[in-house]
Amino acid sequence: MSTRTVHQRKVAGGFAAAGAALALLVSGCASLTTSGEDAERETHTVEEGFHVGLLLPELQTARYEAFDKPFFEEALAEYCPNCELSYANADQDVDEQQTQAQAMLTEGVDVLVLDAVDSAAAAGTVAEAKSQGVPVVAYDRLAEGGVDMYVSFDNRRVGQVQAEALLEAVEEEGDTGDGSIVMINGSPTDPNAADFKAGAHEILDGQIEIGQEFDTPDWSPDQANAQMEGAITALGVDEIVGVYSANDGMASGIISALRSAGVSVEDLPPVTGQDAELAGIQRIAAGEQYMTVYKAIEPEARIAAAMAVALATGEEPELGEERLVEVEDAAGETVQAVLLDPVAVTVDNIGDTVVSDGIYSIEEICTDDYADTDFCKEAQ
Questions:
Q1: Fewest 10 Å CB contacts: which of 93, 158, 207, 326?
Q2: Could you tell me which residue ranges the Periplasmic binding protein domain spans (predicted)?
């Protein structure tokens, strides 16, 4: 299987000449134009191969380049050895992702796998693909516009898992009625973030006081750091008994703000996370971060590849033990989907999750900076 990369700030040669035929309509958020009814789809075969486009959303979260892309590439090569893969990462830029999608459609991709920067803005990309007879798999985030299939995690359950762990940690410290928590949610343009937030509120509301709450543009650790500094100023650092952080990157900024406010590692309130990034796992080992949510990316990527092959060939996707369910997008359109289960990771089960699954080795976690932690002493 050959792989072609569409660079983050460049498009393939020849795109400019074809731009008039597939022009961008710039109005607020740029969107792709559509023409006429959806085109009839061509059926391909695995033996002959076909062209798949993979569009990932950002670089701030380590998972996309380190895991999602290579796992997807490996699975596609297994399911369709003669397929060609084009890849692009939009680096959190809505217009750039639409340009990358435009370039892939101009190249003649036969199926798109799309993890949207902005799910609403992605509707134009989906509509353009449909007008050319190109099916779309929504990956990790449910893009609008009527995608064909969708694979992700049960995102409301992710928020519930985070909140349950946070509430349990606060209760263990006996602080439930003595202070308040801060909620630092994900990007307002990411529908997954809204689901995480809703799931967390289902657990936390009425159980503990929420002193401050923020939505964080672009999942930015720097923004999360500034938001946490504001919460410390508003509430007082001693009144904060826990922090709901929607992911690990933001948790790093939050912990930095707490440390700058004079909180020792031993006195840090429990801070949640998500994505099981290596730095997050190391912070958990060191007692800085309480937990993260591990979402097994390899099965998600494999299912996305299986869906892409199925849509291109007209066959059933190879889903293993998973099953298709129906979900609704923001416009109320029904989409066939697979929703995987998230897992809470604390210091007590690092070895049984990310280590046993081969995501990280003990050597990768227990570098010199973390070798003296209790976890690393026991693990080595």
A1: 326
A2: 53-316
